[in-house]
Structures are given as structure tokens and as C-alpha cells.
Amino acid sequence: MSSGEISGRFRRVEDRYNRYDVVDLDGDKIGTVDHTYVSESDQREYVAVSRGLTGLLPGTGSSIIPLDVCAVDNTSRTIQVNAEKDLVKNSPSLGSGDEMSPEYESQVRSYYRL
Fold first, then answer.
1. Triad 22, 92, 79: Cα angle to 5°
2. What would the CATH number be for the domain defined by 6-111?
3. CA 99, CA 83: separation in Å to the nearest integer?
4. Would you kindly state where each structural domain of the chain is located, as residue ranges?
5. Of 84, 91, 93, 113, which residue is most buried, by most CB within 10 angstroms?
6. pLDDT for 71-108, tens place per residue?
7. pLDDT in tens, 46-69
8. Which of 5-14 are b and which e, b meaning 16 or more Cβ less than 10 Å from the residue's Cβ?
9. What angle do CA 67, 8, 96 make, to 5 degrees?
């Protein structure tokens, strides 16, 4: 899927926050942003952190983190999640072949209590 393609009602934007480091409340690295999803209807943004590359969990898939629970520092190219690393590690997973859907968004937002 290339940048700008629509997946359900989400647009995957691969260059926004690309390769930013994602850290938890304590500054411990969770991983690196693979791509960003933007909701077409309300412009909510989510970053995807690959589980297979970050050591969070074996295998493929991504942790999707709502930017509503993050602070972005464009100068240091870092995104700090307002949560502990284990919370992100145990979040709902989006498989590498799966699409971000409104149902998945609801599950993620509920998990992060939004």
C-alpha cells in the first residue's frame, strides 16, 4: 500500500513521523514509527510501531498508538507515549496484512481509555 492509499476510512501516511523513536513515560524506547494512519472523517492520527522489529513481541504486526496519548517532539524526532512500555506491548495488534478499520480503531481507543 503506498502513501495516500485509503484503507477503509483511514489514509496511511508513510512519511509523517517516519522513523521517529517512540518512548514510554520513563523514556524507555518502545520502537520506531513505521507509518502513520489518519482518519479521513475526523483527522485522528495513529502511529504504527512494528512489533517484529522492536522486540516487543515475536512475529509480525504493529502496535497502533493514538497520538491523543502522545507528545510529539519534532526537534528530537521522538514521540513519547503517556503510558508504560508494557501497556503498549499488550495493546491490540494489527497484522501486517490487516487494514485499519473503524472497528479496530474503536478497540484501540477503548484499550487506551479514549
1. 15
2. 3.90.50.10
3. 25
4. 6-111
5. 91
6. 999 999 999 999 999 999 889 888 877 788 888 999 99
7. 999 976 544 444 445 789 999 999
8. eeeeebbbbb
9. 70
